[in-house]
Write a structure and sequence with these properties.
Layout: H1 2-24, H2 33-54, H3 65-75, H4 93-96, H5 100-116
Helix pairs in contact: 1-2, 1-5, 2-3, 2-5
Length: about 120
């Protein structure tokens, strides 16, 4: 059961990441950076949740991204390499998520998270 649930969550994460990347393929003036960041952020949380469930860990819907990362690091020290500080910056997400630099940074973090959970 956990493997099936984990696989479903990881597939959802892949869909979120793909949606974020597709948004970046639009002409620059049409890109909605907020949407890129939002989908990449959700992909990262789903990758970690799927990984944890696959490892037999309980994950609640209210778990923060910092909590998920901490649990992943407890299971696999390789997650220490994943620096999610850009996702945890203080301030209004609508201000933070409105530029191409941040969008690319979030996509990069989602790709790194995907690789760490064992999807290549």
């Amino acid at each position: 059961m956990n493997n099936l649930k984990s696989q479903n969550i990881l597939e959802e994460a892949d869909e979120m990441l793909q949606t974020a990347k597709e948004e970046l393929c639009r002409p620059e003036e049409d890109v909605v950076h907020y949407m890129v960041c939002k989908h990449a952020y959700k992909a990262i949380t789903k990758y970690m949740a799927g990984y944890l469930i696959g490892q037999g860990q309980a994950v609640s819907h209210s778990s923060s991204i910092a909590d998920l990362l901490g649990k992943c690091r407890n299971i696999n020290p390789t997650f220490q390499k994943l620096n999610l500080d850009p996702l945890l910056r203080q301030g209004d997400p609508e201000d933070l998520w409105m530029n191409s630099h941040t969008s690319n940074e979030f996509i990069d973090l989602a790709d790194k998270t995907r690789n760490l959970v064992g999807l290549n």
